[in-house]
Protein backbone atom coordinates (compact mmCIF):
# COMPACT_ATOMS: atom_id res chain seq x y z
CA UNK A 1 0.00 0.00 0.00
CA UNK A 2 0.99 3.62 -0.42
CA UNK A 3 0.26 6.50 1.91
CA UNK A 4 0.02 10.04 0.53
CA UNK A 5 0.26 13.02 2.86
CA UNK A 6 -0.95 16.22 1.23
CA UNK A 7 1.18 19.10 2.50
CA UNK A 8 1.79 17.76 6.02
CA UNK A 9 2.56 20.43 8.62
CA UNK A 10 3.66 18.63 11.78
CA UNK A 11 6.97 16.74 11.65
CA UNK A 12 6.11 14.47 14.55
CA UNK A 13 3.01 13.20 12.73
CA UNK A 14 5.03 12.41 9.63
CA UNK A 15 7.70 10.72 11.74
CA UNK A 16 5.06 8.51 13.36
CA UNK A 17 3.59 7.71 9.95
CA UNK A 18 7.06 6.66 8.78
CA UNK A 19 7.05 4.16 11.65
CA UNK A 20 3.69 2.80 10.49
CA UNK A 21 5.03 2.54 6.93
CA UNK A 22 8.10 0.66 8.14
CA UNK A 23 6.19 -1.98 10.09
CA UNK A 24 3.55 -2.46 7.38
CA UNK A 25 5.79 -2.29 4.31
CA UNK A 26 3.91 0.73 3.00
CA UNK A 27 5.41 3.43 0.81
CA UNK A 28 5.09 7.11 1.75
CA UNK A 29 4.50 9.98 -0.67
CA UNK A 30 4.74 13.56 0.60
CA UNK A 31 3.12 16.34 -1.44
CA UNK A 32 5.06 19.60 -1.29
CA UNK A 33 5.23 22.15 0.11
CA UNK A 34 5.85 20.56 3.48
CA UNK A 35 5.53 22.42 6.77
CA UNK A 36 9.02 21.25 7.75
CA UNK A 37 12.31 20.13 6.24
CA UNK A 38 12.76 16.40 5.80
CA UNK A 39 16.04 16.66 7.67
CA UNK A 40 14.19 18.25 10.62
CA UNK A 41 15.42 16.77 13.92
CA UNK A 42 11.83 16.48 15.19
CA UNK A 43 10.87 14.46 12.12
CA UNK A 44 13.82 12.12 12.46
CA UNK A 45 13.37 11.79 16.21
CA UNK A 46 9.68 10.89 15.87
CA UNK A 47 10.58 8.25 13.29
CA UNK A 48 13.63 7.14 15.30
CA UNK A 49 15.53 4.63 13.19
CA UNK A 50 12.51 3.67 11.07
CA UNK A 51 13.48 5.85 8.11
CA UNK A 52 15.92 3.27 6.80
CA UNK A 53 14.13 0.97 4.42
CA UNK A 54 11.01 3.12 3.99
CA UNK A 55 10.40 4.27 0.44
CA UNK A 56 9.68 8.02 0.81
CA UNK A 57 9.00 10.12 -2.28
CA UNK A 58 8.21 13.82 -2.56
CA UNK A 59 5.99 15.17 -5.34
CA UNK A 60 4.78 18.65 -6.26
CA UNK A 61 1.38 18.02 -7.87
CA UNK A 62 -1.06 15.48 -6.48
CA UNK A 63 -3.64 16.09 -9.22
CA UNK A 64 -1.19 15.17 -11.98
CA UNK A 65 -0.03 12.14 -9.98
CA UNK A 66 -3.59 10.86 -9.54
CA UNK A 67 -4.69 11.54 -13.13
CA UNK A 68 -2.09 9.04 -14.36
CA UNK A 69 -2.98 6.23 -11.95
CA UNK A 70 -4.61 2.94 -12.79
CA UNK A 71 -4.62 1.92 -9.12
CA UNK A 72 -7.32 2.12 -6.46
CA UNK A 73 -7.07 5.21 -4.30
CA UNK A 74 -9.14 6.77 -1.55
CA UNK A 75 -9.14 10.15 0.13
CA UNK A 76 -9.74 10.16 3.88
CA UNK A 77 -11.82 13.16 4.94
CA UNK A 78 -14.05 14.14 7.82
CA UNK A 79 -16.42 15.59 5.17
CA UNK A 80 -17.08 12.25 3.45
CA UNK A 81 -20.21 10.17 4.02
CA UNK A 82 -18.95 6.70 3.07
CA UNK A 83 -17.16 4.76 5.83
CA UNK A 84 -13.58 3.63 5.26
CA UNK A 85 -14.73 0.04 5.93
CA UNK A 86 -17.28 0.18 3.08
CA UNK A 87 -14.66 0.15 0.31
CA UNK A 88 -12.32 -2.54 -0.97
CA UNK A 89 -8.56 -2.31 -0.54
CA UNK A 90 -5.83 -4.32 -2.24
CA UNK A 91 -2.07 -4.41 -1.89
CA UNK A 92 -1.65 -1.51 -4.35
CA UNK A 93 -4.30 0.81 -2.89
CA UNK A 94 -3.23 4.39 -2.25
CA UNK A 95 -4.58 6.14 0.86
CA UNK A 96 -4.55 9.94 0.71
CA UNK A 97 -4.71 12.23 3.74
CA UNK A 98 -4.95 16.02 3.88
CA UNK A 99 -2.84 18.40 5.91
CA UNK A 100 -3.46 18.73 9.62
CA UNK A 101 -4.63 22.34 9.37
CA UNK A 102 -6.47 22.53 6.03
CA UNK A 103 -7.37 19.00 4.97
CA UNK A 104 -7.72 18.47 1.23
CA UNK A 105 -8.61 21.18 -1.31
CA UNK A 106 -12.15 21.21 -2.70
CA UNK A 107 -10.90 20.40 -6.22
CA UNK A 108 -10.29 16.78 -5.15
CA UNK A 109 -13.81 16.50 -3.71
CA UNK A 110 -15.21 17.84 -6.98
CA UNK A 111 -13.10 15.61 -9.24
CA UNK A 112 -13.41 12.32 -7.30
CA UNK A 113 -16.40 12.53 -4.89
CA UNK A 114 -16.87 8.74 -4.99
CA UNK A 115 -13.31 8.20 -3.73
CA UNK A 116 -13.83 9.91 -0.37
CA UNK A 117 -14.15 7.89 2.83
CA UNK A 118 -14.37 8.84 6.48
CA UNK A 119 -13.62 7.48 9.91
CA UNK A 120 -16.57 7.45 12.33
CA UNK A 121 -16.48 10.36 14.76
CA UNK A 122 -18.99 12.12 16.98
CA UNK A 123 -20.63 15.06 15.18
CA UNK A 124 -19.00 18.36 16.02
CA UNK A 125 -15.82 16.80 17.39
CA UNK A 126 -12.32 17.66 16.26
CA UNK A 127 -10.71 15.30 13.78
CA UNK A 128 -8.41 12.50 14.83
CA UNK A 129 -4.67 13.02 14.78
CA UNK A 130 -3.23 12.46 11.30
CA UNK A 131 -0.92 9.62 12.35
CA UNK A 132 -3.82 7.86 14.09
CA UNK A 133 -6.02 8.21 11.01
CA UNK A 134 -3.30 6.81 8.77
CA UNK A 135 -2.85 3.85 11.10
CA UNK A 136 -6.56 3.06 11.08
CA UNK A 137 -6.71 3.23 7.27
CA UNK A 138 -3.59 1.15 6.69
CA UNK A 139 -4.63 -1.58 9.10
CA UNK A 140 -8.12 -1.85 7.59
CA UNK A 141 -6.45 -2.32 4.22
CA UNK A 142 -4.13 -4.97 5.63
CA UNK A 143 -7.04 -6.71 7.34
CA UNK A 144 -8.91 -6.95 4.04
CA UNK A 145 -5.85 -8.13 2.15
CA UNK A 146 -5.04 -10.84 4.70
CA UNK A 147 -8.68 -12.01 4.74
CA UNK A 148 -8.73 -12.46 0.95
CA UNK A 149 -5.47 -14.43 0.99
CA UNK A 150 -6.74 -17.14 3.34
UniProtKB/TrEMBL annotation:
UniProt subcellular location: Cytoplasm
GO CC field: cytoplasm
Domain of life where this protein originates: Bacteria
Coiled coil: none
tRNA/rRNA methyltransferase SpoU type domain location: 2-139
InterPro entries (UniProt xref): Alpha/beta_knot_MTases, SpoU_MeTrfase, TrmL, tRNA_m1G_MTases_N
Pfam family, one: SpoU_methylase
Gene Ontology molecular function: RNA binding; tRNA (5-carboxymethylaminomethyluridine(34)-2'-O)-methyltransferase activity; tRNA (cytidine(34)-2'-O)-methyltransferase activity
Binding-site residues for S-adenosyl-L-methionine, renumbered to this chain: 98, 119
The keyword Glycoprotein is annotated on this UniProt entry: no
Family: Belongs to the class IV-like SAM-binding methyltransferase superfamily. RNA methyltransferase TrmH family. TrmL subfamily.
Described purpose of this protein according to its UniProt entry: Could methylate the ribose at the nucleotide 34 wobble position in tRNA.
Protein name: Putative tRNA (cytidine(34)-2'-O)-methyltransferase
Native source organism of the sequence: Simkania negevensis (strain ATCC VR-1471 / DSM 27360 / Z)
